[in-house]
Write a structure and sequence with these properties.
Translation, Eukaryotic Peptide Chain Release Factor Subunit 1, Chain A, Nucleotidyltransferase, domain 5, 60s Ribosomal Protein L30, Chain: A, 3 domains, 12 helices, 16 strands, flat
Length: 398
């Protein structure tokens, strides 16, 4: 399953809430025996027979049975492992609708898990699809500084410095004024040293999309206000974070306290993309198209730079078969899956379907085109969904 389709599935699974602890989650690590997993689940079925509530007991046992039968379809564990989610997804009280969702994830599953709850356990999959954009961190105070690279939740420390800036208590025999001048000069040299290291490191890592400056006390604010980093790098600063520590603890504290900044940065990036789309749309010969068929046409011409799909768009690509005219593919809404052949008006047989985002994720690979999945959390995102929820920025006019 592609990353874009997995994101949509995670949101779908996250919206399912069980009335009781009857939603079953199973994670099978890469290389682990499916036979052993099936044996464990058979044992759990026996345990589930002791559940007092008849409805909960029935749903848990049925879900486990469905998972066990699904595991029998595999000759061996998929290369990256397997994640299985099963339970009663019916929203009507007293009505059972046991549905199974099976995921072969894009990265290796390292967690072995069986869990029953009112919600599915999604954290291992969520970690796989989190934005892996690269950020820079400068964590400093008057005593030490660390410069690091952040990718996802992985922090890679790159440079560490210890400073010689003295505390505010003056040394014996020096006048207050002289001590203050010396300290101020050393602090200026210290900030220059940190800035030079940041310029060199971040200049070499062109993939960095944002920079966070952190630390305890006023030194980080002095660093931000001064001209210690090049102008193009200062423009990448997304904010400052107060931390209680510097060093390794300070870097991890920066990540924890800077999560809102990182989320906001992703939202800003999305808003800019959609604003660009809407601006082009209002031009007489703007470099955009919208609508699934129009985007595919432009894509096949090699004219598309970025395909944009709304998370809120509930549309499927369905493969049909007409007995007279063969295979056909169409993008349709779920309530309009029944389709007639455009040539003979015969109702076609459905062979398969997939989410529109997954369909475009596969198509863009052939054209060196980017794919952006955008939310409906912003005004621009809602406007884009109103326009149809699928569009593209073009490389050139068509």
């Amino acid at each position: 399953m592609g990353e874009i389709a997995l994101k949509k599935l995670i949101r779908q699974l996250g919206a399912i809430k069980g009335r009781h602890t009857e939603l079953v989650t199973v994670y099978v690590p890469a290389g682990y025996s499916l036979h052993e997993v099936s044996g464990q689940l058979r044992s759990e079925q026996g345990t589930a027979e002791n559940i007092k509530s008849k409805g909960v007991r029935k749903n848990v046992v049925s879900s486990l049975e469905k998972i066990i039968r699904h595991l029998q379809l595999y000759n061996k564990t998929p290369p990256n492992g397997l994640a299985l989610f099963c339970g009663n997804v019916s929203e009507k009280e007293g009505v059972d609708d046991i549905e199974l969702f099976a995921v072969e994830p894009p990265e290796m599953v390292k967690t072995r898990l069986y869990w029953c709850d009112q919600k599915f356990v999604l954290e291992p999959l969520e970690e796989m699809v989190k934005e892996k954009e690269v950020y820079g961190i400068v964590c400093l105070d008057k005593s030490e500084a660390d410069i690091a690279i952040l990718s996802g939740k992985k922090i890679k420390p790159m440079v560490h410095f210890d400073s010689i800036v003295p505390g505010k208590t003056r040394a014996g025999g020096q006048s207050s004024a002289r001590f203050a001048r010396v300290r101020e000069g050393l602090l200026e040299d210290w900030l220059k040293k940190v800035g030079e290291a940041a310029n060199k490191l971040f200049g070499e890592h062109k993939e960095i999309v944002g920079i966070i400056v952190s630390g305890s006390g006023p030194v980080k604010d002095m660093f931000l206000k001064g001209d210690y980093m090049y102008g193009n790098l200062k423009q990448k600063v997304i904010g400052a974070v107060d931390t209680s520590y510097t060093g390794e603890f300070g870097l991890h504290e920066t990540l924890e306290r800077g999560e809102d900044l990182l989320k906001e940065s992703a939202v800003v990036k999305e808003k800019k993309l959609l604003q660009r789309f809407l601006e082009e749309l209002h031009k007489a010969h703007g470099l955009v198209v919208y609508g699934a068929a129009e985007v595919i046409g432009a894509l096949e011409m090699g004219a598309v730079d970025t395909v944009i799909v709304s998370e809120g768009l509930d549309m499927k690509e369905v493969e049909y078969e007409c007995s007279q005219h063969g295979l056909q593919k169409k993008f349709v809404f779920p309530d309009k899956k029944s389709q007639k052949c455009g040539q003979c008006q015969q109702v076609m047989r459905i062979l398969g379907e997939r989410d529109i985002a997954e369909a475009f994720e596969e198509r863009v690979k052939n054209y060196g085109t980017k794919l952006a999945l955008v939310s409906t959390d912003t005004r621009e995102g809602q406007q884009f969904l109103y326009l149809g929820g699928v569009g593209a920025l073009l490389r050139y006019g068509i």
